[in-house]
Sequence to fold (795 residues):
Amino acid sequence: MHIIINKDKYFLNQLHTKLENNQQLSSWELFELHYRMETMLIHDDFDALLVPNYLPHVNFMEHQVKAAQTVIHDMDGRAILADEVGLGKTIEAGLILKEYMLRKLVKKVLILVPSSLVPQWVEELHEKFHIPAVAFRKGYEWEQYDVVIASIDTAKQNKHQSHILDIEYDMVIVDEAHKIKNHKTKNHAMIRAIQKKYCLLLTATPVQNKLRELFNLVTVLKPGFLGTYESFKRKYRTENEIQSDKHLQKLIQQVMVRNARKDTLLHDVKRQVETVWLTFNEEEQKVYDSLSNIFQDSHTFSKITYLKELCSSREACYLSLEASDSKKYKDILENIAVLPHHVKAKKLVEIIQSLNGKKVIVFTEYRATQFYLQWYLAQENISSVPFRGGMKANRKTWMMELFQNNKQVLIATEAGGEGVNLQFCSHIINYDLPWNPMRLEQRIGRIHRYGQENDVHIYHFAIQHTIEEQIMHLLYKKIHMFEQVVGKLDDILTALNIDLDKEFSSIMETSDSVEEMEIKVNHLTEVINQAGREA
Amino acid sequence: MRKNFIHDFLETFFRENNCHVDSMEGKLVVGLTEEMDKALMNRPFYWNYMETMNQKGKPMKLTFLTKNENRDEEGEWVTFGSPRLHQVAKHLKGQSQYTRLFQVMHTHEQTMLHPWLVLNYCVRYEGKQIKEKLFSIGLHLIKGTIVHDMMENLQQIELHEVISNHCYTISPIIKPSSGINRIEKYIDDFIENDDHTWAVKAHQRLQRELDLIQHFYEHTSDKQEKKREEIAAQKRFTPKITHEIISGGLFYLDTRFPFQ
Fold:
């Protein structure tokens, strides 16, 4: 076997010139100091990770360091990082990148992330890893900087893509890699076409059970590792076979790291879950009942929507009834308009005040409720900031900063997407409950994640004798949502190939009565529970 | 032990660069010179402005914290991963790659100094992973004697950029350009006798990867992608060894060196 040897042909000429011109000749002290530094910086071991020694200001978790080790040593730098939400995939990617950079194996890096996460990636790489990453901006050249962070949507534009494809990258990192799992998309094609030595794909969406998606992602990393698609499909005809095939599972473990929360130290952070049962006062209950009666015969979907809204705030229900523009709601609109402050809002203030200034995130499903709560809390001298999915990336970042530094309460209508870190806060109030328990999990995942040092307190608000009580019993209690380890439900749903959001909307669309809906939801939870018992 | 290294390192570096240094337990306060400020502080506009205004600029004062326990004090906490340390190391490298030095002799008699070529090598083994080894080699340019761990040997003596009184040097018989070949031969011999399981492993890995690629693209027409993947695999796994000379120079030493 032949080993290529590259010798240094440059140095002696340089030395000769310097000696001849008597310039830039070093003192012994500096000459010796330089050599001593080199002895410290040398990597005299193939295996041990250098990174932890270089970054003593960060407390890395065991599973993160281990993941980095596995990717570097066993997977040779091409891997899918598929930890559950909140375990620090970004950290793992940073560790791997830094290690390669320290070992001088990587210089040119492209990091593709959703645009809202760009600032956060830049910050994390700077602060935790001292990696001088630069967010791509208009007018920059792709060649200009060594470590560039950009959104996929920017990168795939023709004018940019052609430049990117010309560059020989040492490492390409794709966050939210499920966006490239479809081989027919431009995203997928572009990632495949980029010249890359090492490659990390980050995704919290489990892909290991979907034949085509799994195949596509692995093929980005290691073409041929799973054979051709035809041979792969022939071998594993159904999703079930993927699950049960030990050989395939083993293959996948060679390219994918997936840590579950229950296996990490983060499991030690406890969840204190409390369901706060409330009752409407007489007026509220009267309006609720009449609302329920009006819609007795009409479509179940609208009925449930209005009822849920009334359980959240007068405003939410009022606005959506008003928008429906039907004259028959005139009376009820008038009744809603004169309702007193919502029973939940009052309870909210009570809880926030009892926390003595500790940070709280309040989640609601409705924008009208968000507005109302912001106003109502201000009346009670509680400072808050809003957070919405539709906000621009920099506005989101600003809101987060305000929350972290100046305000006590964040009122959010969405969990803020993967990668939003709110672990400085340890209290969550679910002001109203979403249909999809997974969404609840995402909310909690924002604070119950790497970096959380306190126990996490979660309050679920629910009003008795209303649709909320039904949701509570139908779904949450049945699936034992609150006792479940995070991620387990995730795994079960993937195994069953169930998208809960889709299931619920289809149940509601197709049910002619609340009773029918209940039965269908019952079936669904039964299936989930069954799978849970078997798992 | 490592922390002390950083403290010593920064202290020596700044002192040698004529900065005013206050060294305390786990803490260094450094008053930069104008030159160092320009080299490290990245504020060309300030210096440019002062120069246009014909004013004397004021170099900055830096505080470095070199001990874990002090990290919360006012100042820059410097660790092995700190950008500051690497910035300084880089600057130092630019200052100290080449040298010509004379052994300091305290003598009243005519004393002859012999020429040595000293080269410090970093040799990198690169397969699936990377391992580096430093070689510090001295070659007697008259007798052809080779001394390894040369830097350690040189630490025993006093060296200066200017030749001591009453001393004179004699010209090399071996030219540095052929001297370097002898030094490389020495390193090559070492490498040849070293354990190269790493290269065998990397090579096997490369073959396996290339086979997969070959098989995968057998029936497709995308030759370009195939080529791309092959190149990527070669980059990742082709075993290679790289020599880098990190520093070196001519040393004129007492004829009795290396005193054993």
User: Anything to note?
Assistant: Residues 348 and 431 of chain A are 8 Å apart (CA to CA).
